Amino acid sequence: MNTDRPILQGSWFDGMTPVAIPASLHLDGHGVTLNTDRESRNYEIARLSVSPRTGHAPRFILLPDGGQFLCADGHVLDPLPQESPSEGPVAWLESRVAFALAGVAIIFALVGFGYFYGLPWAAERIVPRIPIATEVSLGKTTLAWLDDHHWLRPSRLKRSRREEIRTSFDELRSGLPMEQYLHLKFRDAPFIGANAFALPGGTIVITDQMVAETRNLAEVEAVLGHEIGHVEHRHAMRSLLQNSAVALVAATLTGDAASLSTAVAGLPVVLARTRYSREFESEADEYDFALLKKHGVSPMAFAILMQRLSAKTGKNDGALAFLSTHPVTAERIRRAEEAAGTGRVRRPNARKRP
Length: 354
Prior knowledge:
A hairpin with an 8-residue loop joins strand 5 (49-50) and strand 6 (59-62). The chain is an alpha+beta fold. The chain has 13 helices and eleven strands. The chain folds into three domains: 7-94, PH-domain like (Roll); 96-129; 131-340, no CATH class.
C-alpha cells in the first residue's frame, strides 16, 4: 500500500440504511478507495461530488453508487469535483463575520425600504386596477360579518336624527366621483365605542356612540367628510394590500401558514379598525376640509370635536375608539384651524342640532 496517498477518516453511508459505518477514503491521482472493516470499494475521482463548504461544518462526498462519505473539511477536498462551482467565494464570504453582519444589515434596510416605500407605491398603482365591484363586495361582506358576530348592532338613534344626518350625508356626497357607491350605515357599537369608518367600496359606518359625542350637525359632517375622503382615495384597499403583503411575507419567512389563515379570517376586524398611515390621514383631512367649506361648514367643527375627544383620554374609553383608528395630533388640529381661516374660533358657523 502506498502510504503517501492522502487518507480521509470519516463515516460511510451505503445509501440503503441510515447507519453510519466507520471508514477511510484513500485518494490518488485517478481514483479513490473506500475501506471499511468489511470491504473495499474503488471509484473514479471524476464521478465524485463534494458538498459546498459551510463554515467549518463536515462535508459529504457523494459516491456514484448512491453512498456518501462524511468527513471533516480540509484542503485535501479542494481538488475533487465540487457540487457547487461557486463554493470558494461563497465559503470565503461565510467565514467573514463582518461580511455576514453587513449582509444582515443590507437585508433589513431593503425590507424597511420595501415596507415604507415599495408597498405603498405598489398599492397605489394596483388599487385602480381592482374592479370597483370587487371592492363593493368586500365591503358588504365585511359589514355582514361585523353584524353577524355582534360587533355592530341595529342603531338605536331616533329615526328623525338618522334622517337628518343622512340628508347631510347625501348633500356631502352629491357630485363626487364615488357618489353612487357612497352609502351611510348607522350602527350601535358598545364594543367598538364612538367611531366611524369607511369600508372598501364606499360603505361608511357611524356608530350611535360617535353621534352622541357630537354637539351639532357640523361636527357629524366633519366626521363623515373625513371618511368620504378615505373612500375617494381608496385608502381601505390600499392599506389592505399593504398589510396583506406584510402578512404573506411574514408567513412565508416563518413557514407559519396558521398565522396567515388567522389574519385572513380576521379581515373584517382589520378593515373596521384600520389605523391609517399619517399620509392617508392627512389626505382624508385635506379632502374633508375642502368638502366642508364647499358646503358652507367651517373646518373648525373638525378641530373642536377632535380637541374635545382628545381631552377625554383616560376619562371615557368609549370616546377613544375614533382616536385609536384616527390618531389626533396637534398638527392635524392646527391644519383644521388654518383651513377654517378664522383662527381659534370656538364655535363653527354651521347648522346646530335641533
